[in-house]
């Protein structure tokens, strides 16, 4: 079992989640006005490909969804959306691991925070904040907290979560032995396709510095 746990890699449906915005060079004049279109509005997001949470422990979620609200904002950084619900796996397509089915329960709301905007590419850079989730695989259960950096692209509506080591931490772990401890530095990666709820409309985020 110890050998199995050591080789374990986690794929969790999320983001999140996730909802990410990846690190990029800051512009010379950081945006302080964030125009979200439409605003205010509700959004839904579904995973595009697997969502991956790596914490030395194997889980795979091929289905994940999120929903929340978005609105224009000011400041830098600025919260442009709130993720009020995020789910990993379904009864028909549960998250799985070598230890059996995996349950991931998020404590929401998470936030989508904007820091920089590239008007040439239409890409916003920032992070998903207030991330908190409990992951259970067999007897192993641990809680993840922190932030996850990433990008949002206006042309595609993809919120790409791409956290780096040190942004997320394990705040508690039980039944995991030495595989997952409070010293573990998880990473969370994956893409979500965002739409205005009930439509095919892709929301836009534009930053400016008037």
Relevant terms:
210 residues, mainly beta, three-stranded antiparallel beta sheet, 15 strands, 52% strand, globular, disordered N terminus
The count of helical stretches stands at 1
Distance N to C terminus: 59 Å
Write out the strand line-up for the largest beta sheet, numbering strands in chain order. 2-4-6-9-10-11-12-14
- The tally of structural domains comes to 1
User: Oligomeric status of the shown chains?
Assistant: single chain
| Strand elements, count | 15
What's the helix-strand series?
Answer: HEEEEEEEEEEEEEEE
Reported for the largest beta sheet, the result is: 8 strands, antiparallel, barrel
Mean pLDDT, to the nearest integer, reads 87
Spatial shape: globular
Low-confidence stretches: 1-27
Structural class: mainly beta
Overall helicity: under 10%
Short précis:
The protein has 210 residues and is mainly beta.
Task: Note down, in words, how this protein is organized.
It is a single chain. The chain has 210 residues and is mainly β. It has one helix spanning 2-6, and strands at residues 33-37, 41-47, 52-54, 64-70, 73-74, 78-88, 95-97, 100-106, 110-118, 123-137, 140-153, 158-162, 168-174, 187-196, 204-208. The chain has one domain. Helix content is 2%, strand content 52%. The strands form 2 sheets. The protein has an 8-stranded antiparallel barrel. The chain has a 3-stranded antiparallel beta sheet with strand order 5-1-15, with no helix packed on it. Strand 10 (123-137) and strand 11 form a beta hairpin. The longest helix is centred in the first third of the chain and has 5 residues, at 2-6. Residues 1-27 have low confidence and may be disordered.
């Amino acid at each position: 079992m110890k050998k199995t746990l050591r080789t374990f890699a986690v794929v969790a449906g999320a983001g999140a989640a996730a909802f990410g915005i990846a690190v990029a060079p800051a512009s010379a004049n950081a945006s302080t006005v964030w125009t979200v279109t439409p605003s205010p509005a509700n959004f839904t997001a579904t995973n595009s490909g697997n969502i991956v949470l790596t914490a030395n422990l194997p889980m795979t979620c091929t289905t994940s969804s999120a929903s929340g609200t978005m609105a224009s904002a000011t400041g830098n950084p600025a919260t442009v959306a709130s993720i009020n619900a995020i789910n990993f796996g379904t009864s028909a397509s549960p998250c799985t691991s070598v230890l059996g089915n995996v349950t991931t329960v998020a404590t929401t709301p998470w936030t989508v925070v904007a820091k920089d905007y590239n008007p040439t590419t239409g890409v916003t850079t920032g992070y998903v904040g207030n991330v908190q989730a409990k992951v259970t695989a067999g007897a192993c259960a641990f809680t993840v907290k922190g932030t996850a950096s990433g990008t949002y692209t206006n042309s595609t509506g993809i919120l790409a979560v791409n956290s780096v080591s040190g942004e997320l931490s394990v705040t508690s772990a039980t039944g995991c032995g030495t595989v997952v401890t409070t010293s573990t530095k998880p990473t969370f990666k994956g893409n979500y396709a965002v739409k205005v709820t009930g439509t095919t409309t892709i929301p836009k985020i534009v930053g400016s510095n008037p």
